[in-house]
Amino acid sequence: MSQKDYAIGLGMDDFSMMRRENNYYIDKSLLVKTVVEGIGYVKLITRPRRFGKSTNMSMLRAFFEIGKDGEPDPKLFEGLAIEGEKGIFDKWYRKYPVIHLNLFPMSSSDEFNVSIDSLRDIIASECERLHYLQESSKVSESKKNLLRKLENNDDENKVPLAVLIKSLSHMTKALADHHGKPVIVLIDEYDSPFNHKSQDGFRDKLLSNMSVFFGCAFKGNPHVRLNVVTGCLRIANESIFTGANNLVVYDLDDNLFSEFYGLTQKELEAVLWDKGLPKCLDDLKAWYDGYNFGGTQIYNTSSVLHHIAALIQNRFSTPKNYWINTSRNDILETALDGGYNYHVATRLVAGEAVSLPQISHVITYRSLKREDSIWSILYSSGYLTKALDSDHDYLIPNAEVKSVFVELYKDYVKGKLGLDKPKRLHEAIYTLDAKAIEGLLKELLLSMSFHDTGVNHEDVYHDVFFGAMFGLNILSNREAGHGRADVEVEFPEDKLVVVFEFKRIEGKDKNLSDTALRAYNQVFGLGYIELHRARGFKVAVFGVGCSGKNCKIVGGLAS
To answer: Which fold has domain 3-250?
Structure first.
């Protein structure tokens, strides 16, 4: 039975179960080779959510774990690429005890005691899986008693916090004593307890305790052979990794693990071929491609598989957003607050690549008080990706993520401007009423705070106007003629294009009318409208002169 006949196991991220139940598996097994050959006693791999981190972690556990009796499962990796790496296979396959934790349940609360209770449950579950240690003649009675306390976690007998945060020390010692070998520790979603809105006091207290918890595995534990840690963010300057021996971070810019998280073009084509869907590639590319991991173009694994499953059921299924429901989007909502962020969001929603030199892979939660710092988290979380061949340009990766941006952006604009202004502006543009457009733009400027949004105020007027027009068929900063037109609105059914060019009053302009005329003349002087005329469209041109919270508009239908 070839993989062509295997089912797409939606929602299943356990590697062993996928293999035993004949679910379709995209072979990422060479991750093992990269992990064992790469430098670093602690390997921290950061990737956005829904790119296969948990499946890969369960695969690593299945490969490394010796099991209580040391019994191998010869069929689990049969036919996979790692099987051909004989040296690694013979040395590492089922040779080490493993602790495998997923901290995602801790993300559900921003109350300290509730988060710690979630950690108690996670540790209790792992101790239950390793219950055989409590019967081992090689484990001391004191360690057995500690393991019993950790496993028997109920409301009346909660393990004390001081014991809980040192649980990895107790567990690794017991495993190493029983097996006579050091332990491999796998921690998935390590940043989930902190990766949401929360009070500084809660976060600081949790960080302080979790740094002790992680340190039991990361910081010179003689019973640990290797640590592999995954999450969305690299948390720094808050002591989680302080003192960690030989920590190596593999973030979105690093190419060592670039092909192991998400799907490559080649992998996607193979899945589509197996499922008889090769003609669906273009839709999948537009909706779920676009991520740049270390110079490799990557597709979102979860969304691709969801859509392929939908196509198997109905060949006429259209792509949709699967990603928005997989986690909270409150960080993106925060990104729209403040003048600078609104300016950046407007450019991104317009389809532009935006220069963001302040983006850092190293996140400090205290830095989030800075207005521009939110973009670092959005990049690490997958809402943005780095443009190819650029150090500082970022963009929305694909149609799926853009749909999330668009909905939140529209809600933000409606909240700022009210429901009536955008509607009235749309009508004024459609009827080419320059006086009405000017009056409405003045109203918009009065309702927005924009003086703190940057040096180039010309962009600010553009952004305010663009936000109010959202919902029309808009192009922003499109290459045209010998330059870029600021804003173009197209009405295809009427074969009409309306071009707006914005200028800030400066130089020899005597008044705003001069500024508006300068903007109007630039449209013709640089040939912005020639392409539209060649398409047989009527073109209206408006020059917009701006100063402070005032503006002047000139123009109309071009002859």
So the answer is: Rossmann fold (3.40.50)
